[in-house]
Description:
Elements: H1 3-12, E1 24-26, E2 33-39, E3 42-48, H2 59-71, E4 78-82, E5 85-89, E6 94-95, H3 98-101, H4 104-124, H5 134-147, H6 156-170, E7 175-178, E8 187-189, E9 194-196, E10 203-206, H7 207-218, H8 222-233, H9 239-266, H10 273-293
Antiparallel strand pairs: 1-2, 2-3, 3-5, 4-5, 6-8, 7-10, 8-9
Amino acid sequence: MSESKLELEKAAKLPCWKGTVTPEPLSGGITNTNFIVSDGGDRFVVRIGEDIPVHGVMRFNEQAASQAAFKAGVSPEVVYAEPGALVLRFIDGQTLTPEDIRQDDMLARIIPLILRVHRTIPRYFKGPSLVFWVFHVLRDYAQTLRHEGSRMATELNALMETSETLEKAVGAIDLIYGHNDLLAANFIDDGERLWLVDWDYAGYNSALFDLGGLASNNGLSSEQERWLLTAYFGSERDKSSYLRYEAMKCASLLREAMWSMVQEIHSTLDFDFAGYTDENMTRFHSAVEQFKTNGGLDG
């Protein structure tokens, strides 16, 4: 039996269902396989996926984060969970696009949601939690890519030197609880409020990573970035603070690129990861040049 059929069978046989169900595939999953299930007049999303150590994805952490995010009022209800399976109440809404997020009125709605994530989830999180420190992630990816003969292996030394410099530029941080994967597709607008989903990479981090990721993943303008920081922190950032943010944004882009490099080797999905790597490397180098222009990396 193929892996996809095994996953569908697992989703169908979960003990939480009231009757016989027929899971319908839901597109968009990269680190897991998603289904929509109708049962007893309600709809649910089922996420099927095992641990992915090469990406630091641990399902116990995703499940605990999802539970805490629901209790914090930012994510759908967790209806059932077991190792390798998570059942969430379906949210009838529109998945956002980067273009949506670039609208100023949408950004104004997103900021309170991010603040709630960062400040409130720790009150509800139960059990051990991971830390997501992007510079550790980058070092770990580099080791994997060297060991497994990545096509990008010859560039890794230079990338790690830049990463080390960026880490020093970020400096000391205030610890918050981060989502750490603020792609547009992880936001849902139900017409009344926003929801944030997919807690695969959740963990303690700096707020600068979520803010930098939101900006870099969705193509915010420099004016929007400055507004974003002012709205989040409650006051305009000085040059030093803005450079720390820019350093983290560069690291976010490098992480996305190196994540894709690892996917080139490990993923079985029919997706152009090589093209995605190259696209993010171009964006990373552009961000680093802008960081230098603004006075980072010693100019």
